[in-house]
């Protein structure tokens, strides 16, 4: 079976760094190049095929995606694995160290949405909207709430479990959820953050649960 497009192992990197011992400087050397943080973001909930990454990063070219995956692999943040039969395809997944960047990406996103230049109408990937729930969740508003909500995006589904004023988000089947959303990431963004009525998103399950869930999220105020 022919494998999907794969990164090629290259010679050790020779790109010039900041020559600065600060950890922040080295962090930028690791994931500071254009597209690198978003490629890593897309791997936060599990392995992905090259074609899936390309589809959820619509502004990136195939060549640049290959380059970024190769660099992230060389830096120990991403690895390639082959799924067992019957899939038998090559996928990319974040290493344990790569997954440790998740809180950094969420914090960076929460800081950046305060910019007046942030455009909420732009493209949102399924992973991005699910990570935003972890980022913007307000525990104080979830007192006494316990539910399992699922979000289906084509063949992929994610689950958000809320209990004890905490939220856990992961890629998982939708079966057994109290509410199942079948809406696009953009529609969900409008419902969760833009004040769009519940009628704008397709879902099954308890309406009151879905509406209260939407009240747990709010974008921070603009910086100026």
From TrEMBL:
Highest taxon above the source species: Bacteria
Single annotated GO MF: DNA binding
Pfam families tied to this protein: HxlR
Sorted UniProt keywords: DNA-binding, Transcription, Transcription regulation
HTH hxlR-type domain boundaries: 22-120
PROSITE patterns xref list: HTH_HXLR
The name this protein goes by in its record: Helix-turn-helix transcriptional regulator
């Amino acid at each position: 079976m022919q494998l999907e497009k794969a990164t090629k192992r290259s010679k050790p990197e020779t790109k010039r760094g900041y020559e600065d011992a600060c950890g922040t400087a080295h962090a930028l050397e690791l994931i500071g190049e254009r597209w690198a943080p978003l490629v890593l973001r897309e791997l936060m909930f599990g392995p992905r095929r090259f074609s899936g990454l390309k589809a959820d990063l619509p502004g990136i070219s195939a060549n640049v995606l290959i380059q970024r995956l190769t660099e992230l692999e060389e830096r120990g943040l991403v690895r390639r694995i082959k799924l067992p039969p019957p899939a038998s395809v090559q996928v990319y997944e974040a290493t344990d160290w790569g997954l440790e960047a998740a809180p950094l990406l969420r914090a960076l996103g929460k800081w950046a949405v305060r910019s007046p230049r942030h455009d909420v109408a732009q493209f949102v990937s399924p992973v991005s909207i699910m990570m935003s729930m972890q980022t913007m969740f307000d525990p104080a508003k979830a007192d006494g709430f316990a539910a399992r909500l699922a979000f289906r995006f084509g063949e992929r589904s994610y689950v958000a479990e809320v209990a004890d004023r905490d939220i856990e988000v992961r890629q998982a089947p939708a079966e057994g959820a109290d509410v199942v959303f079948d809406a696009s990431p953009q529609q969900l963004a409008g419902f969760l953050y833009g004040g769009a009525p519940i009628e704008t998103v397709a879902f099954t399950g308890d309406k009151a649960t879905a509406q209260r869930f939407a009240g747990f999220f709010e974008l921070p105020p603009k910086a100026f």
